[in-house]
Amino acid sequence: MSALTVAALAVGFVLLVAGGESLVRGAGRLAVTLGISPLVVGLTVVAFATSTPELAVSVDAALSGHPGLAVGNVVGSNIANILLILGLTALIAPLVARSRIVRVDIPIMVGFSIILLVLALDGVISSLDGLLLLAGVVAYVVATVVISRRRSADPTDTAQDGSAMEDAEDAEGAVGVDSAEDGTSHSVLKSSAMVALGVLMLVVGARLLVTAASDLAAAWGMSDLVIGLTVVAIGTSLPELATSLVAAFRGERDLAIGNIVGSNMFNIGAVLGVTSLITPIEVAAGAIRFDLPIMVAVALALLPIAFTGMAIKRWEGFLFAGFYAAYIAYVVLQASDHDALEPFSTAMLWFVIPFTALWLIVLATYELGVIRGRRHARRDPVPQE
């Protein structure tokens, strides 16, 4: 291990932490300045900012004549965002899932994932497909910001579940900005500069870490395949990881989960949309049969996880992280045609996945019963004697 590799690792980690801190602080202040909730900032500004590595990698692949790499980059990143990053972040602190993100944003993310799978069934994502994806994410951002600003301007306009009031309260008290500090004193320019600086540090830090870790893995005798499936695949998700972890440590839990959900939508709508406008993207048959359905299944799994208790708890974070480890193990075993692939696949297909799905269905059903019971109690209160 050379001193240069060690230095690159150290500097990369420092830049990731500092970049995540700057991005979270800037986003929190931007939320106050613009009068929108930190959740919405996480779903839009922060999500787009942390998706810049995926966009850079995919556009570079398209310009270099390898547009098919964009699909693997986005699909792998989306799976890692939910299973690995939300899993690790929830292990630090349970993530609060606002009713708005459960009712609206996660279902929209699932919709983007399903649309991508349908568009890829013919083996190519055409320029027309890309235009549709890009238009979808632009429409989502515009609608999200406009609705959030209207709700913040009129706190009395409360939805049945109180999500509008939640947004208004969040906009007034964004974490990361001292309560005694007047949000209007932070201009949009200054907050945007902090966000831009954070993005720059995240991108440079992630690049240094990926390069150093690849050199280190090669020195230890790891194959290019394993390096690509682990170090490089996770590398483009490091900005999301750093941002979500910093947000969790600072108590900005709305921003943490909003960052991931929004980033996954940007990866599909903006990254693949822009890349396919440059050149049509060929989708490998293996990705259609395995990776894209896994991405859809992971997105679907997030809905009951976030719905139960309106939070992603620590044990659920551990479950996500465990499934990501299983996914990586499967991909590596399949690529190397290892003898352990068949028993491993059998165990996952017939035992682990069905048991987990059944458990999530039971939890979601129980949560629905609790919610209905509360609503019934509010409608028909027990008269006091």
Specify the CATH architecture of the domain at 38-175 and 223-338.
Answer: Up-down Bundle
**End-to-end CA span:** 77 Å
Average pLDDT over all residues: 77
CATH homology group of the domain at 38-175 and 223-338:
NCX, central ion-binding region
Globular, elongated, flat, extended or rod-shaped: what is the shape? globular
Question: Can you write the helix and strand succession as a string?
Answer: HHHHEHEHHHHHHEHEHH
Radius of gyration: 21 Å
Enumerate the spans where pLDDT stays under 50 for 5 or more consecutive residues.
158-183
- At the fold tier of CATH, the topology name of the domain at 38-175 and 223-338 is A middle domain of Talin 1
Quaternary structure annotation: single chain
**Quick one: biggest sheet?**
2 strands, antiparallel
Beta content comes to under 5%
CATH structural class of the domain at 38-175 and 223-338: Mainly Alpha
Structural class category: mainly alpha
Count of DSSP H/I helices: 14
Count the strands? Answer: 4
How much helicity do the residues have?
over 70%
